[in-house]
């Protein structure tokens, strides 16, 4: 190859590199929205196809209706959660501070009437409260980090709302032009991998994303709804029940996360002397909320992915760190796709993997 051809080849590579860098810089702010729209469209594509058939192949109307559903199911609840945190957290923390400043907290009635151990428990309670101002100062010091964490969480969710709005806009075009995009991706993957994986990676990615989304967020949504119903039955106000249900949704990605919510509510009912509602919340949490996590989640994930719960937690946590609140939705699917591609690649015998020599033109 002559020197002129070498120079021309390197010049092409430089131009391509500059274009790729420019495209990345332009699209970088919207990457979370693009990935979120992709995850939503992939996981709901069968529903979109059914809706499109009902509308006599009107792709525009079907795409619009899917985006309306996305707004109602994801964006509006996230906005309500942001407003609820902003309105209720500060007032609740201040109420607790005022309660602490009233003086030593009297033991609850159920503690006094506890058989056999009631007297010992009362003595322990009084010893704990004998610290007076020191105990109050300690409790108020613990409340401040909780307040800051909840307010920061509200800010993170609020900032991610804009990404969700962009995702809804992008998702409309993904739905409407989805078949053409899939065909283009098939051609690109075929040229890039040249059949080295021995299977269709797009089909595997679709199954993986669908399994992870249905398993993680389907079960999380079911747990949140079940928890909210339980709180409403127990007499919790609508706004508080919604906030506790939303907390159940987000905490469902960590082990025993929902237990912190319904367990804390049970303790509160117990302290208030509502023994019946305390027992009800424990039974509802064990047999309704936790049963969804123990049976529904593994079944749904196993249908499309063998992703372990550890990787789910890492994906959600890393997604939040990398992309904010919206990362909880896109972190696990991205990690699942990467693991699936690695598994497909490593499962092929070395003889079947085509290696392009550096000497080839």
TrEMBL record:
Pfam family for this entry, one: AI-2E_transport
Predominant subcellular localization, coarse grouping: membrane
Record keywords: Cell membrane, Membrane, Transmembrane, Transmembrane helix, Transport
Bilayer topology annotation: Multi-pass membrane protein
Subcellular location: Cell membrane
InterPro entries: AI-2E-like (IPR002549)
UniProt similarity note: Belongs to the autoinducer-2 exporter (AI-2E) (TC 2.A.86) family.
Protein name per Swiss-Prot or TrEMBL: AI-2E family transporter
Organism of this sequence: Nitrosomonas supralitoralis
